Amino acid sequence: MDIIPMLLKEMEQEAQTTRKMLQRIPEDKYDWQPHKKSMTLGRLATHIAELPGWIKMTFTTDELDFAKGDYKPVVINNNAELLDYFEKSYTDGREYLSKTNENELLKNWTLRNGDQIFNVYTKEEVVRMAFCQTVHHRAQLGVFLRLLDVPIPGSYGPSADETEFN
After folding, report:
1. What is the gyration radius of the CA atoms in the chain, in angstroms?
2. Whether the predicted pLDDT of 70 surpasses 90
3. pTM, rounded to two decimals
4. DSSP-assigned letter for residue 108
5. DSSP assignment, residue 126?
6. What is the CATH superfamily name and number for domain 3-147?
């Protein structure tokens, strides 16, 4: 069984849900945060938007070393920029995933901070991690939106805001 078509299908399905969530963000709340240890709403949304692009990074590098300072979060100021950034990240990630092969998925990729190695994954595991990170942070975004009284779109079925059964 080829794993790449399955990954591409999952990536598209998660992108549909992510788009719906990102579209709900109130532009006047980008600096809001529910707790001092939490990201701001804008930073969280931007991180969610960038995650599909990590797939491109996975296939164009063998590691991410935070000590090198190569990772620079983009600053987003409005929903149009946010959605454009997400679409670019998604398109790039999808392109690189669709061009790769099963053998490339088995190669190692390292997450580190200088000499401190957090983990060594296969590239397939990094792709899956990007998907899982998207779902994880999207759930955080759902909590942020709920606290702001913004209706939550459904993810894998209708949400409490989209059904008469609430």
Report:
1. 17
2. no
3. 0.92
4. E
5. H
6. dinb family like domain (1.20.120.450)
